[in-house]
Amino acid sequence: MMVTAELAVILLNLVLVCSAYFWFYPRVAGADLRKVALFDVLTTALALLIVGSKFWGSGQQFDLVFGNSNWFWFTLVTYLILETPLALWYLKRYGIHKS
User: Which keywords, in A-to-Z order, does the entry hold (predicted)?
Assistant: First the structure.
C-alpha cells in the first residue's frame, strides 16, 4: 500500500497530538495552563520541523479541502484540526480555566 504525502503528515500529526495529550502533558504539565501552552508550541514546532525536513523546497503540493497548499500550511491546519477536540477535552479533564 502506498501512503500519500497527505496521509503521512496526518498520521504524524495524530501520533504527536495523541502522545502529547495522553502521555506527555499529563506527566509534565498537569493542570498548569502555561506549561501546556509552552509544550504545545514545542510539539507543533516539532511537527513542522519533521515535515519540513522532508518537503522543504520540494514543491510538493498538499490537497486541503479548500484547495492546494504547501507542506507548512497543510501540516499546521491538520495539526490544529486534530488537536482542537483533544485540547478541549484536556482542559475540561484537568479543570484548566483561563484566569
Answer: Membrane, Transmembrane, Transmembrane helix
CA–CA distances in Å: residue 31 to residues 35, 37, 40, 64, 82 = 8, 11, 13, 34, 21
Q: Are 3 and 59 in contact (CB under 8 A)?
A: no
Read off the amino acid at residue 30.
G
Residue 99: inside a domain, yes or no?
Answer: no
User: Is residue 21 in a domain?
Assistant: yes
What pTM, to 2 d.p., does this model score?
A: 0.90
In a domain, 23, yes or no: yes
Inside any domain, residue 66 = yes
pLDDT in tens, 19-33: 999 999 999 999 999
8 Å CB contact between 48 and 39: no
Q: Which domain holds residue 23?
A: 5-93
Number of domains in the chain: 1
73-94 confidence digits (pLDDT tens)? 999 999 999 999 999 999 999 9
